[in-house]
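This section describes the prediction task in plain terms. A model, or a person checking by hand, is given the sequence of a single protein chain and must write out its three-dimensional structure as a string of tokens. No templates, partner chains or ligands are provided. The sample shown here is typical of the held-out split.
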Amino acid sequence: MFVPIAFAWPVLRRIGVETFPTTYRVGTRDEKKIELPLADEPYFAIAHEIAKQAMADGASGDMSLAQYQAVVRRSGEWQAVSAALAQNISIKGGTLGSPLILRLTADEALKHQ
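The expected answer:
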């Protein structure tokens, strides 16, 4: 869930999105939503560094461009931007909101940090 988000961000930045969230949202047992720092989520942090390096290197090394793109296409952010672009909606200067992670509870997320 965090890897596709992290892989999509460098691509989205390259095509015009300017502002990215610093947090993500998860549900609590009492069905409320809380925000947690993305930088504290190990899967996101590591994947984001790999993605930035892959974009800088042209997805060389251990990952092909096709593999990189396959991961990016799983991102809800990428899917939303793609839908906007398909309707000729400009994303230049765009802002992404904090992602809501549905398959992770706040308790589970806090265990990873």
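For orientation: Helices lie at 2-14, 42-57, 65-72, 76-86, 106-112.
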